[in-house]
Amino acid sequence: MTDAPSLRIIPLGGVGEIGKNMYVVEHDGRMVVIDCGVTFPTPDQLGVDLVLPDMSYLADNASRIDALILTHGHEDHIGAVPWFLREVGQVPILGTRFTLALVRGKLDEHRLLGDADLVEVAAGDPPREVGPFLAEFLRVTHSIPDCVAVALHSPAGTLLHTGDFKFDHLPIGGPAARSDIPGLARLGEKGVLVMLGDSTNADVPVRGKRSEEAVGPALASTFATAPGRVIVTTFSSQIDRMQQVVDAAYRDGRVVAVIGRSMVRNVNVARNLGYLKAQDGVIIGDKEVDSVPDDELVILTTGSQGEPMSALRRMANHAHPRITIRKGDTVVYSSRRIPGNELAIDETINRLVASGARVVTPDDVPEIHASGHAVRDELAWMLQLVRPRFFAPIHGEARHQMAHADLASKLGIPERTVILENGDVMEVSADGVVTGERVDSGITYVDSYGVADVGEGVVRDRRHMSEDGLVLVVVQVDAHDGTVAGTPDVVTRGFSGADDEELIEAIRDRVGASLAESAEERVHEIDVLQKQLHDAIASLINRRMRQRPVILPVVVEV
Predict the structure, then answer these.
(1) What's the rounded Cα separation, in Å, for the pair 71 and 161?
(2) I need a labelling partner for 389 at 20 to 30 A (CA). Which of 131, 320, 357, 485 fits?
(3) Which domains does the chain have, with CATH numbers?
(4) Residues with catalytic annotation?
(5) Whole-model pTM?
């Protein structure tokens, strides 16, 4: 790389995966962060509620951050904002009207709203100065209102982050929600140095693509043939889909009850801002559900991904305080499966069916869902409109990135396409692109929505206990000579040898022998005694059982 001005692009999340999108763009020693999202925990991330990007690089460079820019209001793009503010302090947060409305509710829950600097922007506004950049916002169609692509202009050149997008010529939001194709073409004419492009559907062919407009008739048909209640689950931020549900319910003579905290909050925000419209009396409160005949009721709820505490999951487990699934119910999944959630979704569906419900998914009726992400022909169109000099596929698993890169190759930019991993540093200028440097880019686990960060070691111990169980040994020792006082207590949880009295007695004997050896050697430090006990007990159990439970020795001086 020569002395030509350059951009440094660092994904901290969102490449090689679906979710926790976060991208750092640096120029002249300053930086702007684009998006700040979360993802769902996998089944082996036990006790974890949210998974966030590792923000240690941002915390270490907080004084260089000029802004956080949000492309839209989905959780995988805004869900980690409260933790971002805790890590880096007050930084201007730029977003569109609806996006910031969702962020305000999130920050209010975390008691951070008073300290937040929220800056509203709109697609089509004149470019505004953001640190060393001129930031321009272009409207794109997605599955939530007020989405934008972000162009950052600098002396090094222009970077375009497409945001999540598709080219839907008949979006539910009307012409005001249509992707700004002329604006994207204008950028392409002026020259784009590097484009970061949404890759989620890069492996989906043209065939089978549906507009959001097609979802309404499919929902209406499902409602009309349902003998009883209809329960529709989708993402709580999918406002266009909620509009389709409300319209279809109204046409079928039904009312809509909204269930689920995030769904209720987002519906209220959307109605207050005019993004969701309903005839008087069509949307009712959850307390009115019991007063409505089954064949006149639609329930709009969270839980499309099998989230453990979601309303639909609790309904399926007969644990919801208001709604119990029963024969005659129709449950409609108006959403796609996010990779990694398949087991949880299938478990929920099986419980719903066992309770007598009919379950309808996009596998059964494809028209009940339309993706918010561009498929291959749309991705090709974006590449040809923008004509970037360099290109990095983002927002997708490795297979999506590779499919997008393959598409770019067929369009003539193979040697200028870079496949990034989280933590990679991509330095790009008019002279070329260089990669190889890396920054910390792990993940952060959050338990109980921010009560405490959960380290990898904690999750590993939980996984360990789920596999081989726990053995807790409590022993009293004489404070003067270190000899055992009384009989050691052995408590087990999830350990297959719990009923083996011979093994339990052998553990007690081994505890006594280990402490006797320590006493002879005049070892009295509690931490050392506990370490020696751990090793002795673990060796015994592994030799006898070929298992490795979590061993917790507790030594109490008396």
Answers:
(1) 9
(2) 131
(3) 6-206+371-454 (3.60.15.10), 212-368 (3.40.50.10710), 469-557 (3.10.20.580)
(4) 198, 373
(5) 0.81
